Amino acid sequence: MAASPKLPAFDPADPLGIDDLLEPEDLAVRDTVRGWAADRVLPYVADWYEKGELPGIRELARELGSIGALGMSLEGYGCAGASAVQYGLACLELEAADSGIRSLVSVQGSLAMYAIHRFGSEEQKEAWLPRMAAGEVIGCFGLTEPDHGSDPANMRTRAKRDAGGDWVLNGRKMWITNGSVAGVAVVWAQTEEGIRGFVVPTDSAGFSAPEIKHKWSLRASVTSELVMDDVRLPADAVLPEVTGLRGPLSCLSHARYGIVWGSMGAARSSFEAAVEYAKSREQFGRPIGGFQLTQAKLADMAVELHKGILLAHHLGRRMDAGRLRPEQVSFGKLNNVREAIDICRTARTILGANGISLEYPVMRHATNLESVLTYEGTVEMHQLVLGKALTGLDAFR
């Protein structure tokens, strides 16, 4: 009888052996982004969060461009052409540092750059994408409005042609990541032809982007309102290859995919903090990690964390194969963000009073994820997307 093969050692950091599914190139991307975040974000992010600012965002963007993290899954125009799995791994590592940093990258690459890359003219692509990929120009994505979040079909922003063929844009957009520091905005507006996207240089007359303050979530991130008062754009400012909600919704689906991975980064950071704390914090003469109730919490957290990473990996492989459906992205965002929040809250209970301190990452991640839960599709919207897919019945209206 042949001897049984020797089993690999159990790895508490990778209990399911998910790393075995990754190629050397995947691991290299992950390690590069993890190293950058450890050097350029983790030593400072608690102070940024406490002050409610992201200083040096333009320098950070250029550094992210230099490691190929901006528009990394796009082809050509200075983009890295990475796989969907590699992009997901990057999102996980960035959000393990802070959701605001991952949001900067997601909005740049998966919303603004993706819209131009997929729906723009060759002239628009050449004009903007190489500089955006390098981090020389920051982009933002204007869809959500003060009165229309989950119902973008009824947006009030309008673009009209004048007699000379130019477009005149009027409206307001709200909760726009990168808005105040962006050099270009992709803005969606109602036209006589339907909803269209416009590439708007932010130095255009009539365009302004006041920053939104007094946030208790995503504090290490630039969030803004976009104000457009008779912004005059040339005829070729419109994205020529799409009309209707298919344009912005396809961009959102691409960005939501990054959240499926990124939310697990926030969860991993909180879980790791809880494990280390449980091994060192003593009560009743022994580490609290040796008590059954604490071990039960850690086991449940590990199960949901690594199930979520495995789900993200599966969706990434489907995206790389051209088989990922929007409903499957909704599945991933709904599950992973919801579970990430629960992991953070459970980690906070293990840390006790220390869990609310910025000396540890847990409360910062928990409050950030409250925004991640809502943006790019609320829980209710993703539940209804799945409900419609499961029943064939539309409950939206």
Please provide the count of β strands.
9
Radius of gyration: 22 Å
CATH topology of the largest domain: Butyryl-CoA Dehydrogenase, subunit A, domain 3
Would you tell me the structural class of the helices and strands?
A: alpha+beta
User: Which CATH C-level class of the largest domain is it?
Assistant: Mainly Alpha
Count, helices: 11
Name the CATH architecture of the largest domain.
Up-down Bundle
CATH superfamily of the largest domain: Butyryl-CoA Dehydrogenase, subunit A, domain 3
Going across the biggest sheet, name each strand in turn. 2-3-7-6
Element-by-element helix/strand order:
HHHHHHEEEEEEEHEEHHHH
Kindly report how far apart the N and C termini lie. 65 Å
Strand residue percentage: 5-15%
What low-confidence regions span 5 or more consecutive residues with pLDDT below 50? none
* Biggest β-sheet strands, sense, barrel: 4 strands, antiparallel
What count of structural domains?
3
The general outline is globular
Q: How much is the average pLDDT?
A: 96
Helix % is 40-55%
Question: Would you give an account of this structure?
Answer:
Residues 244-390 form the Acyl-CoA dehydrogenase/oxidase C-terminal domain. InterPro entries: Acyl-CoA_Oxase/DH_mid-dom, Acyl-CoA_Oxase/DH_mid-dom_sf, AcylCo_DH-like_C, AcylCo_DH/oxidase_C, AcylCoA_DH/ox_N, AcylCoA_DH/ox_N_sf, AcylCoA_DH/oxidase_NM_dom_sf, Glutaryl-CoA_DH_mitochondrial. Its cofactor is FAD. Belongs to the acyl-CoA dehydrogenase family. This protein is of the alpha+beta class and 397 residues long. It has three domains: 18-133, Acyl-CoA dehydrogenase/oxidase, N-terminal domain (Butyryl-Coa Dehydrogenase, subunit A, domain 1, Orthogonal Bundle), CATH 1.10.540; 139-237, Butyryl-CoA Dehydrogenase, subunit A, domain 2 (Beta Barrel); 246-391, Butyryl-CoA Dehydrogenase, subunit A, domain 3 (Up-down Bundle), CATH 1.20.140.10. It is built from eleven helices and nine strands. It starts with 23 loop residues before the first helix and ends in a 6-residue tail after the last helix.
